[in-house]
Amino acid sequence: MSRAQMLMFALLTMHLLLGVLVLAVAWSERRSRALRLWGSGLLAYALGALFIIAVGLVPWGVRQVVGDSLISLSALLTSLAAYQH
């Protein structure tokens, strides 16, 4: 595994775990809409990045469109979370 692949895997794992942690806190303890939006944004970013690097499973054009759409959605969700807070 190259350094670039290792870095992408580490970033993907970090966003996925942080999104799950934020959603767990938002649903269990605080009932905060801002935290739920932020956690959803982190998960959308992780899924978008995962979709882009999923080589061989989906055609290239579809991977790019869906992955970029999920990453754009994550920016929207994070912005809404900041606005709600």
Structure description:
The chain is mainly α and 85 residues long. It has 3 helices and no strands. It has helices spanning 3-30, 33-53, 60-84. The longest helix is centred in the first third of the chain and has 28 residues, at 3-30. The termini are far apart.
Can you summarize this structure?
The protein is an all-alpha fold and 85 residues long.
CA-based gyration radius:
14 Å
Contiguous runs where pLDDT drops below 50 for at least 5 residues: none
Overall average pLDDT: 89
The succession of helices and strands, N to C, reads HHH
Number of helices: 3
Question: Which percent bin holds the helix content?
Answer: over 70%
Shape: globular
Separation of termini? 40 Å
Note the main sheet: none
Helix and strand composition category: mainly alpha
Number of strands: 0
Strand content: under 5%
Show the helix and strand layout.
Blueprint: H1 3-30, H2 33-53, H3 60-84
Please supply descriptive tags for the structure shown above.
87% helix; 85 residues; mainly alpha
